[in-house]
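Hypothesis: this fold can be encoded by more than one sequence.
Test: take the structure tokens below, design a sequence, compare later.
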């Protein structure tokens, strides 16, 4: 941004690293800038359905003082401040794929608005830079052109303000701010340095020339914007503001005006402190301030928090009065500096305490809530244990045969229970929450290693029988359980290396970063290959585990159609995914068709599969077809209705998994295509193992193991417990509009 840099280098602008408070998403950051109050993580949910801001804010102050305001850009402003603007053109921030039209819709009004003189405040909120980050990260090849475009907008506005000033019109203040930063991957929402490091540049504060270091080496808090802008435009500071007026922003004022601004900011924070601390003994300070007493002396501050705040404010007020009294007879720059420094000590101390106070949680209520949850879990586990015991000991003749199996604990079962308890305990540590993916990768891989050990111990045993007769279809090959377990471990290791997830090690090299450096052509080929293999594997699973050929043809053909549609979408809209996306109607229509077909396939599977299976059940059973569920008893073969139910659930489940995989291939980043395939491989291999395991695993073991694979897969896709890893690049890819219900 050469023009903006020239303004900073020549002292015509002052720049700040404006530290934003998490969560670093648009709506909470906008509220912080206009009200001076810190948002909460509840605002993340409200960000998708923004309501009118009820807190006191500078937009409301402008409106109440008769200022005319115009807004073009992110429609979050229109939702926060309905009816406040005389003209507006809002654009949605959720169509992340659009990086061009979303900014053109703002810039098209710029020429006309700069020629008009009927507004006092013009807000332009550009979204293209944020969208470029979500699509390709901070190093996207679109980032340079987009920054140049923003620099041209700044130059256009600044030159227009210079012309107005030359024509003896009112001066214009140009404030350039960003609501948040972004990580290397282009996302935001967390509290890392890259996410909270936002921008604030003031252009047109006056003719005071600063060196480049003074103009750029400054820092402030994002909440300081509310008090600063309010004092610059001579409107009341929002009553819930906890920010501090930015020092360099007042340099064009006279010393008396600066001191008055600091005094107003101090009064406002003192009122907040008095609301929080009922015992704040500062009334005598305000009385002294009004009487003009100049005989008081500055004292050292100590004692409890109330006494410290009163002492700090009293010292600032004393020095301020002393400066006002002395400047009548002599100009004393040291008195002014001492008074200003004392005000800033009070302001920063009060602001930091109030910020902590706003984010404090009631510890007592948290302890009560956690205790209640633990108690309810213990009661539930006790009921389950007694119910399980009553179920298995109901008949005396079954006790001897069932106790050995139902109430004996194997190593894999003990490990799962212990791992679950360790995971629950680890959630009490913020560091473990940040790096939770390591727990799931360790637990899932260790558990499947234990299954390999358990399976190897059963090799000398009788191989002719299995719980569901699968040994017949596998021709007695005991290698299938071992191979399936190894495939889960190999897939898991690749998934583990695909993304360096979490918070602390996200910048380390991984496979996804290597693919991005290799170029889009390699990523696209991998994407197509993954989609093709998902289709083949889904159909192969049916033919391998199921001998009903007609049903396989019907279900397989239904799988094949949406798979081809996704392949066509990838080939036809490759530019959309390379980052050079211009919002197109055709890509949206194609995605909508895929979405409808996948939805219809799922519904048809639920409705039609049970009916078709019922027709072929008699013939299938007479031909010795296997049952499709993962575990069960041979007695189930004598109950056709139960066989139909279990087989129906199997086919419906695979239809759901297949549709989920295709949907993920459509919505995920292209580099995540192979992880989606590997997750499908893990699910298939796990089901194959549970079908052929001798003896059969308990149901809760199977469910827990699949849950662990799902959690490990969630983190393997690049997700974490930070909001910054939420990938919104696929948002609204299948819709042209959205309707949110409050």
């Amino acid at each position: 941004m050469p023009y903006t840099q020239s303004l900073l280098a020549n002292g015509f602008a002052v720049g700040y690293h404006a530290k934003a408070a998490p969560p670093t998403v648009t709506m909470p950051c906008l509220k912080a800038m206009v009200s001076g109050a810190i948002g909460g993580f509840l605002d993340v949910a409200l960000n998708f359905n923004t309501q009118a801001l009820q807190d006191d804010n500078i937009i409301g102050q402008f409106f109440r003082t008769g200022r005319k305001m115009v807004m073009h850009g992110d429609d979050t402003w229109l939702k926060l401040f309905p009816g406040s603007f005389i003209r507006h053109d809002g654009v949605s921030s959720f169509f992340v794929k659009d990086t061009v039209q979303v900014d053109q819709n703002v810039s098209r009004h710029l020429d006309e608005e700069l020629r008009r003189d009927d507004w006092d405040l013009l807000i332009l909120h550009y979204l293209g830079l944020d969208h470029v980050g979500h699509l390709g990260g901070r190093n996207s090849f679109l980032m340079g052109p987009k920054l140049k475009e923003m620099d041209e907008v700044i130059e256009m506005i600044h030159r227009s303000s210079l012309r107005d000033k030359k024509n003896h019109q009112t001066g214009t203040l140009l404030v350039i701010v960003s609501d948040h930063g972004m990580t290397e991957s282009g996302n935001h929402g967390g509290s890392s340095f890259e996410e909270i490091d936002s921008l604030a540049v003031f252009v047109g504060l006056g003719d005071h020339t600063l060196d480049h270091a003074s103009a750029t080496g400054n820092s402030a808090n994002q909440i300081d914007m509310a008090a600063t802008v309010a004092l610059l435009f001579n409107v009341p500071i929002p009553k819930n503001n906890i920010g501090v007026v930015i020092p360099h922003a007042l340099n064009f004022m006279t010393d008396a005006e600066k001191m008055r601004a600091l005094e107003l900011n101090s009064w406002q924070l003192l009122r907040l402190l008095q609301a929080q601390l009922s015992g704040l003994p500062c009334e005598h300070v305000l009385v002294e301030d009004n009487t003009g007493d100049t005989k008081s002396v500055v004292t050292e501050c100590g004692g409890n928090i109330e006494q410290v705040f009163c002492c700090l404010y009293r010292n600032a007020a004393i020095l301020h009065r002393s400066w006002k009294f002395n400047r009548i007879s002599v100009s004393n720059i040291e008195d002014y500096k001492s008074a200003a420094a004392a005000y800033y000590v009070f302001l920063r101390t009060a602001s930091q305490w109030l910020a902590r106070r706003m984010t404090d949680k009631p510890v007592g209520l948290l302890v009560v809530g956690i205790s209640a949850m633990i108690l309810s879990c213990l009661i539930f586990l006790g009921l389950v244990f007694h119910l399980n015991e009553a179920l298995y000991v109901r008949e005396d003749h079954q006790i001897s045969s069932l106790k050995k199996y139902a109430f004996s604990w194997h190593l894999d079962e003990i490990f799962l229970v212990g791992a679950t308890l360790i995971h629950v305990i680890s959630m009490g540590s913020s560091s473990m929450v940040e790096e939770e993916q390591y727990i799931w990768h360790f637990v899932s891989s260790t558990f499947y290693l234990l299954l390999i050990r358990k399976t190897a111990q059963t090799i000398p045993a009788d191989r002719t029988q299995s719980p569901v007769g699968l040994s017949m279809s596998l021709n007695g090959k005991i290698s299938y359980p071992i191979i399936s377990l190894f495939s889960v471990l190999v897939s898991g290791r690749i998934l583990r290396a695909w993304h360096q997830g979490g918070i602390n090690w996200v910048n380390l090299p991984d496979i996804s970063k290597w693919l991005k450096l290799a170029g889009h052509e390699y990523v696209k080929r991998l994407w197509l290959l993954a989609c093709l293999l998902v289709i083949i594997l889904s159909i192969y699973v049916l033919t391998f585990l199921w001998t009903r050929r007609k049903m396989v043809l019907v279900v397989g053909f239904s799988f094949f159609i949406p798979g081809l549609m996704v392949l066509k979408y990838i080939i036809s809209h490759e530019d959309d995914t390379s980052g050079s996306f211009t919002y197109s109607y055709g890509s949206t229509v194609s995605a909508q068709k895929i979405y409808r077909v996948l939805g219809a396939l799922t519904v048809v599977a639920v409705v039609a599969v049970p009916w078709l299976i019922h027709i072929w059940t008699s013939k299938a059973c007479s031909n010795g077809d296997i049952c499709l569920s993962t575990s069960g008893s041979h007695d189930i073969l004598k109950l056709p209705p139960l066989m139909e139910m279990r087989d129906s659930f199997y086919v419906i489940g695979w239809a759901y998994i297949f549709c989920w995989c295709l949907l993920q291939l459509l919505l995920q980043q292209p580099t995540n295509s192979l992880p989606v395939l590997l997750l499908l491989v893990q699910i298939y291999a796990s089901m194959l193992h549970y079908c052929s395991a001798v003896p059969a695993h308990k149901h809760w073991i199977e469910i827990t193991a699949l849950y662990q694979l799902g959690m490990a897969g969630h983190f393997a896709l690049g997700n974490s417990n930070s909001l910054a890893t939420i990938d919104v690049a696929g948002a609204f890819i299948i819709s042209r509009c959205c309707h949110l219900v409050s």
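Residues 395-399, 461-477, 576-583, 625-637 have pLDDT under 50 and may be disordered. The first helix runs from residue 2 to 9.
Hypothesis status: open.
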